[in-house]
Amino acid sequence: MEVPKNLQDCYFFYYSTCKKGSSCSYRHEPSCLGHEEVCKLWLENKCFNRQCTMRHMKIQKPRSQTKCYWEDQPQGCMKPHCVFQHRLPRRTGAGGSNSQGLLQLPIGAPGGLILVPRIL
């Protein structure tokens, strides 16, 4: 028996950007962003919960072992729940802060950020 699309995770929603949005026939469950724990019931075709907090996608190689393509791009990786491997601290939105105590301020180029030490 084939699992209905609305119970299977949308690859693009979890690893990139799904351009179909709410019209996508695959599952978009925000609580699954940032982790890759696969639902054991889903693997057995027994989970029919669209809001299940576990992943509904077979994962052959964990993305955390695959280097993030966007990290080396000019703007860096801007996805807060990126599951791909990062060697640098992740960026947050403009004016936000990250776990290293650094503020991120906008710079000249659109979407550009600069990290500066946070003074407490």
Quick structural overview:
With 120 residues, the chain is low in regular secondary structure. It has two helices and two strands; from the N terminus they run H-H-E-E.
Describe the model.
With 120 residues, the protein is mostly loops. The protein contains 2 helices and 2 strands. It is globular. The N and C termini lie far apart (58 Å). Residues 94-112 and 116-120 have low confidence and may be disordered.
Properties at a glance:
little secondary structure; two-stranded antiparallel ribbon; 2 helices; 2 strands; 8% helix
Helix content: under 10%
Classification by helices and strands: little secondary structure
Supply the number of helical segments: 2
For the largest beta-sheet, the strand count, sense and barrel status come to: 2 strands, antiparallel
Radius of gyration: 17 Å
Detail the poorly predicted runs.
Answer: 94-112, 116-120
Ends distance: 58 Å
Overall form = globular
- On the 0 to 100 scale, the average pLDDT is 74
Along the chain, the helix and strand elements come as HHEE
Strand content is 5-15%
Strand order in the sheet with the most strands: 1-2
Number of strand elements: 2
